[in-house]
Specification:
single chain, about 120 residues, mainly alpha, 5 helices, elongated
Length: about 120
């Protein structure tokens, strides 16, 4: 029972955290609608600002089926965000990069926890 509970936590906690982080990141894209311009221009700006969120949605879809590959892709996304947006330290690093790294590590840990549970012979 204990292994089942640990596996459940390592499967659902990273998924929930990733969903919450994607929503948090998408929230910053909403400021486009306060700017002047046509609705079409605002929607275009919203989509452009939401590209990092859309990348993370794609990674989450992969991680949903394969936590190991999804975890590695999540870590790659964190490094790509760091390099693309020049986030090296400080509060921005702690709020944008660190959660992605933690979720990636949890996906990878969840893969090994689930694998360990199924590798054991039944007792």
């Amino acid at each position: 029972m204990r292994n089942s509970s640990a596996r459940f936590r390592f499967i659902w906690i990273p998924r929930a955290l990733m969903i919450l982080f994607i929503l948090f990141l998408t929230m910053f894209s909403l400021d486009v609608f306060e700017m002047e311009g046509t609705l079409l221009a605002k929607l275009g700006g919203f989509v452009m600002h939401s590209i990092p969120s859309l990348v993370l949605v794609a990674v989450l879809l992969v991680a949903w089926r394969n936590p190991l590959v999804g975890g590695v892709l999540t870590l790659i996304a964190a490094v790509a965000f760091m390099l693309r947006f020049h986030i090296w330290s400080g509060m921005t690093f702690a709020t944008i990069i660190l959660p992605v790294v933690v979720v990636g590590a949890l996906f990878i840990a969840g893969h090994f926890v689930g694998r360990k549970q199924f590798a054991r012979p039944p007792s």
